[in-house]
Amino acid sequence: MKNNNNSKTGLGLVIGLSLGHGIKHFGQGALTVIGPMLKVSMGLSDVAYGAIFSALNVSSGLSNIPAGILSDMYRRKIAWLLAISMFTIALGYLLLGISSIYAVIILSVILIGFGTSFWHAPAFGTLAARYPDKKGFALSMHLTGAQIGNTIGPPVIGGLISGVALGSFIKFSGFGWENVSLFLIIPMILTGFLVLILFKSAGSESDSNWSFAEYKLRTESLIKDKVVLGLILLGAMRASIHSSFQLFLAVYLKEELNYSALVIGWHIALITAAGIISTPIMGILSDRFGRKPVIQVSMTLMAIYLFLFLIFDEGLGLIILITLLGMFFFSVMPIVTAATMDRVPKGSEGSGTALNFIGMSLIGFMAPIFAGFIYSQYNFAGISIMSGVIAVSGIILCSILPMKKSNNP
Fold first, then answer.
1. Most exposed: 222, 230, 328, 399, by fewest CB within 10 Å?
2. Is 198 helix (H, G, I), strand (E, B) or coil?
3. pLDDT confidence of residue 164
4. Domains plus CATH for the chain?
5. What is the tens place of the pLDDT at every residue in 96-107?
6. In 74-184, which ranges are continuous DSSP H helix?
7. Whole-Å CA distances, 401 to 248, 301, 329, 389
């Protein structure tokens, strides 16, 4: 009876957390569109611009340490942890909108990165515990919320920055990126309070909290597991592809193709639009047929599409390729996370999620700086080659890692 109740509660929880995740990513994705405008207004070099996003990645990685500890030690306080995530993002956008000092810009993205990643351990860990036999589905639905936010965010943010003109009836000149940064404070704070009010059941599947000594002992056993480390590396490789490619795709669209913020926003939205449909499907397939084949096929197609950007780098061909890439760019991430959750013991879901995201951020934190160097020397073609090579390496790693085959006989 207890499991049935958890399942019913969990359905509402997964929908609620997915919506909150969507709002979080709406704000998180805004940086991709704001970034090129910030780069131009501050006169930053490619490497200095990449360093901003490296700081974002480092902060994202480090925030998983306290997030993982607190998620497993205070399972009944998950709603508070999720609210802290949203409030920290709001503070970051406040600083971003009011300052033009490079050091303060770095501090603002550190706060945004900390807040955005602080969400993952409590949310992913809670869903993995609530859906023990359907982790792929639950985590993929959560990522679908993120993809909706990532899809809606860029064109909306782009339109708010550069304005919209529809004939002679609607003419809006835009607010500028600084004001849009300040506007983003509102949905983040509102979502934080809604989490506290509506998601009180988050973490209720836990019978007790851990002591720090118990947490330390279990985490040490996870770190010694070579398969877990391999899955963390695989997730980090996917993350480095994503951060490098999306970051400099926006710069390429601005500086080489001379697109407006609105048009850049629509192109960035395509990266996640197709994934809204493909992500839950891939989650269900991974639960039924196993994680490995889904990850292998996804990363193989990802590699092919990345190399094809060498041929189709503008116009309709570019749009089609971005859309195809979007079917797998984000979608493979919850499958890798679910594979990690399959490996960790019950009660360690928060720690397992935290380790996964720490690896994604810390192993991939140099990617934006390295990508900035590549872009300055070889333009967008260099980014495509670099990303494609990492994807091929990920396919090889996935092939040698043992993974749970399926949840069905």
1. 399
2. helix
3. 67
4. 2-400 (1.20.1250.20)
5. 999 889 999 999
6. 78-98, 102-118, 120-130, 135-162, 177-183
7. 31, 19, 20, 19
